[in-house]
């Protein structure tokens, strides 16, 4: 039998052969308590908490079949985080979420159906009552309310580092009687701010020219070349472009993202050789070269070091040789490139 919990969510029975052993689940959000558990059958749980205009829903478990529930909370703005599993809202394809994605939406009608695919699921919905959308959107203009339920709006965004950081802080909250509502509201505003910026970045990325993407990627590499996990995917996520798009941009410049990262590391290595007392081994390890010989080999190769032929004017008299590595990034439409070159001078 379908039941209505706290006049806020309509919950059908679970299709499960597992009987609860009587032990309550360990809720992922620490401020949720036993009193907030709306459903529990031994493998899946749903928890719901209201905090003076704020709503928190957590659904987690392994579902043997597809399942759904209904939101009965109109006039709210929601952030829907799909950490694990797959879901859809109101049977509309443009509302689908996969693992590691999140999306915002308004409850612009009395009932919204949330459909969960069978398998492992962990999702969190955070909602806030909106009495005046004009005031709300004056602070976050990207969140203008759509005219109809069928209108595609508010792109799904990958759950990135900033979102996970805020969620870690949310999870640390406990069920304090006075400050909990203020703390959750503060963190929800942080999440809305991140989502608003993510939407702006995504809209901007759709109109970026290749040269802009390329230059922003180079800027990011220069700033984060010491990061061990820097790669095509991390750069693409930061620039809000697809990995495939980023690959094609670098391919158009006759280079690769890996080569650009290595080039900039070699440039920094050259600076460190000239300006510090660090050993070659120390520099190599600091620049994520696990074997110093690889760093040395790449440096020589990139600098195109070679011995002059006998009889040439370069060996008729002794002179000091100086090497210089130069990173060049231009904004000219067809000539934005990274150049690492060797120059010999008297």
TrEMBL record:
InterPro entries in the record: HTH_AraC
Domain HTH araC/xylS-type: 215-296
Cross-referenced Gene3D superfamilies: Homeodomain-like
Assigned keywords, A-Z: DNA-binding
Example of a GO MF term: DNA-binding transcription factor activity
Keyword rRNA-binding: no
Entry protein name: AraC family transcriptional regulator
Source organism: Sphingobacterium corticibacterium
Lineage: Bacteria, Pseudomonadati, Bacteroidota, Sphingobacteriia, Sphingobacteriales
């Amino acid at each position: 039998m379908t039941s209505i919990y706290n006049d806020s969510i309509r919950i059908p029975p679970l299709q499960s052969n597992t009987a609860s052993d009587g032990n309550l689940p360990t809720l992922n959000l620490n401020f949720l308590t036993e009193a907030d558990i709306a459903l529990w059958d031994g493998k899946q749980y749903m928890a719901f908490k209201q905090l003076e205009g704020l709503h928190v829903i957590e659904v987690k478990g392994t579902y043997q079949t597809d399942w759904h529930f209904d939101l009965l909370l109109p006039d709210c703005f929601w952030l829907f985080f799909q950490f694990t599993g797959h879901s859809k809202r109101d049977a509309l394809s443009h509302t689908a979420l996969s693992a590691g994605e999140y999306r915002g939406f308004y409850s612009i009608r009395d009932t919204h159906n949330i459909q969960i695919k069978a398998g492992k699921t962990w999702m969190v919905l955070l909602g806030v009552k909106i009495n005046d959308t004009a005031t709300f959107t004056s602070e976050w203009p990207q969140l203008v309310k759509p005219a109809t339920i069928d209108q595609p709006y508010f792109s799904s965004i990958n759950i990135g580092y900033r979102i996970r950081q805020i969620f870690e802080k949310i999870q640390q909250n406990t069920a304090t009687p006075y400050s909990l509502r203020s703390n959750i509201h503060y963190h929800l505003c942080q999440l809305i701010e991140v989502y608003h910026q993510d939407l702006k970045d995504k809209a901007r990325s759709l109109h970026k020219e290749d040269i802009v993407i390329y230059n922003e990627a180079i800027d990011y590499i220069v700033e984060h070349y010491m990061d061990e996990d820097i790669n095509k995917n991390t750069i693409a996520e930061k620039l809000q472009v697809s990995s495939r798009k980023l690959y094609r941009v670098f391919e158009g410049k006759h280079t690769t993202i890996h080569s650009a990262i290595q080039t900039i590391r070699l440039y920094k290595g050259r600076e460190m050789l000239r300006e510090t007392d660090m050993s070659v081994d120390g520099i190599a390890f600091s620049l994520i070269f696990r074997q110093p010989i690889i760093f040395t080999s790449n440096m020589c190769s990139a600098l195109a070091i070679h011995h002059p032929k006998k009889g040439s004017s370069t060996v008729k008299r002794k002179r000091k040789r100086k090497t210089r590595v130069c990173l060049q990034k231009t904004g000219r439409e067809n000539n934005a490139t990274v150049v690492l070159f060797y120059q010999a001078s008297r």
